[in-house]
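Worked Example 4.2. Consider the chain below.
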Amino acid sequence: MTALQSPALLGGEPITKSADWPGWPPRLSGLNEALAKVVEQDRWGVHSDVVKEFEEQFSAYHDAQYGLAMANGTLALSAILKALGIGPGDEVILPAYTFLTTATAVMDVGAKPVFADISPRTFNLDPSEAEKLVNNRTKAIIPVHVGGNPADMSSFNGIAARHNLHIIEDAAQAHGAGYGGQKVGSLGKASFFSFQSSKNLTAGEGGIVLTNDQELYEQLHPIYNCGRALNGAWHQHISPGMNYRLSAFQAAVLLFQMKHLEEWAQLRESNGLYLEKLLNAIPGISCARREPETERNAYHLFIFTYDEEKFNGLSKAGFIKALQAEGLLATDGYQPLYLLPFMDYSGPPLPATESVCRQGVWLRQSQLLAGRGMMDKIAVAFRRIQKFSRQLAGLAAD
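Applying the procedure from the previous section yields the following C-alpha cells:
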C-alpha cells in the first residue's frame, strides 16, 4: 500500500480501519475490581477516601497543593469564579476559539465574557490581544490550553501583575502538559480540568479545581459542598452553596487510570511531535506551534490548519470526508463563540480566530496512542489525498 494508490473515496483500499486504533475510553484490566471495592464501602460520595486519594494524586501530579473533584469541568470553572467573587458587572477575557462552556460558565455567574483574538501560530489566546481589552471592569483572564497545547502563561502572569487580575487556567484538555518546569494547572490563581468521555483521563463526566492558594481552596468548599466550610459540621451551612461533588465511583475510575497517565502523556508527546514533522512537510498543512517554554503538549486534540488551495480546491469538508474514508478519526473544529446567536457581542471580527475556525481540522487523541508505524500511515493518507485532490474535488462537486 503506497501513497500512489487511489484514495478510498475513489475506490482504493483504505490506509487504516477504525479497529486499528486504540479504543477510547480505555478498557483496562483490573478496573472492574477497583469499582467493586467502592461498592463494598460505606461511602459512595461525600467523605469518600477514594475521592480524597484521587484529589491528592491528581493535584500532586500537576504540581498543585490543593484539589477539589467536581461533577464536571464547567461547574469547576463556575466554582472558581464564584470563589473569586466574580459576578454581575465584572468582565472576564477569554478566547472565542474554545469549547462553549468556557464562556457560559462566566455568564452563569452573571459576568460578561469578553472575547480576544488568538495567535495564528499556537491557536491559543494572544496575550497582547487580551491586554488591549483590560479595563476597570476586568477581573480575570482565562487562557485556554487548546487541545492540550500550553498557553503563554509567562505573559499572562505578567499581565495579571500589571493590572491586578486573576489568571484562571482552562486546562480541561491539558492533562499532563508541561510548561516552564511545571505542569499546567499550577501556573495561575487556579485551574480546572475535565474528565468528560473524550478527555485524556476520563470517568465519562467529572472535573477538578486545582490551586496553590489555601485561602481560595477554603472559599471553594462551601460553594461545591452545600454551603459547608472546610472541616465544618454537617449541618453547619455558612453560605448558600451548591452540590458540585464527584462520586466515589467516578473517582475510582480516575484513580485507576492515574497509574497510566504519565505513560500515555509521554506516548502522545512522542507520536505528536513525530506526526507534526511528517505533516508540516506537506504543502497546505500547518500544525499548531508551541510556546518556547512548553515542555509537553497533552495532545487532547491534534490540531492543524488546512489550505484547500494546496489541494486543488478540495473543500475542508471534502478533505475531512476523505480522511475518514481512510479510517482516520478526523473532525471539524470550533466555530467562533461570539457568532453564536445568544452571545451579546458588539466588538469587531477576530481575524485569527475566524481563520483557524475556517481552516482548522482535528485528529482524536487516541490515535496518538497507537504505534509509530500508524503515524506514518496517517501521513500516507494525507499525501494520497493531496495527490488525488483534483479528482476528489470533482467528486464533491458532482
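The chain has a mean pLDDT of 96. The radius of gyration is 22 Å. Compare this with Example 4.1 before moving on.
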